[in-house]
Design a protein that fits this description.
Helices cover 35% and strands 7% of the residues. By secondary structure, the protein is mainly alpha-helical. The protein starts with a helix and ends in a 16-residue tail after the last strand.
Length: 175
């Protein structure tokens, strides 16, 4: 296909897509090397336009890599998830293939098995209550803003960061 015919087809296609610069479009061969600078970067690279996130939220995520949505999960659900996590920490429930990782320094201390000794729970998809968090419609609505509609859990991990013990660290400089 020659350059002028390809350019004409591209102008028609861009016109259908509502591009303002359809009349100024130029076709470029794709078989050779193309400079990355010749492509226009989209305004939002990591979020999808699905009318859930505001423009301010999308911009914040694009710049910072995280987003806080306050009060997304109900207090009742949070309480249920916390209770199940505490049961796992105490050994009252252990679904098959779940991996529980304990902080060695805390686990060897005076603490009895509790949520203070567990730093991570992996592969909790067989725990019906904890995995329910991954299927909450209010969570999935926001996850879809980043991934699109085909959401699958390939690996599950809960990271537990207990509050500071209150014992401060003392730094001494040797002379």
């Amino acid at each position: 296909m020659n350059q002028s015919r390809a350019g004409a087809r591209l102008r028609i296609l861009l016109g259908h897509l509502g591009q303002r610069s359809a009349g100024a479009a130029v076709a470029h061969p794709t078989s050779g090397a193309v400079s990355p600078n010749s492509f226009q970067t989209p305004q939002f690279q990591y979020t999808r336009d699905n009318n859930v996130l505001s423009l301010e939220q999308r911009q914040f995520y694009e710049e910072n890599g995280y987003l806080v949505i306050k009060n997304l999960v109900s207090d009742a659900d949070i309480k249920r998830f916390r209770n199940e996590f505490e049961r796992i920490c105490k050994g009252e429930v252990k679904p098959e293939q779940m991996m529980i990782m304990r902080d060695v320094t805390i686990a060897k201390s005076e603490y009895a098995p509790s949520e203070r000794t567990v730093s991570k729970v992996q592969d909790f998809q067989e725990d019906e209550e904890l995995f329910r968090y991954c299927t909450l419609p209010e969570i999935l609505k926001y996850v879809e803003c980043f991934t699109g509609p085909n959401i699958m859990a390939m690996h599950t991990m809960l990271i537990n960061k207990p509050p500071d013990s209150g014992k401060g660290l003392l730094f001494v400089r040797k002379k």
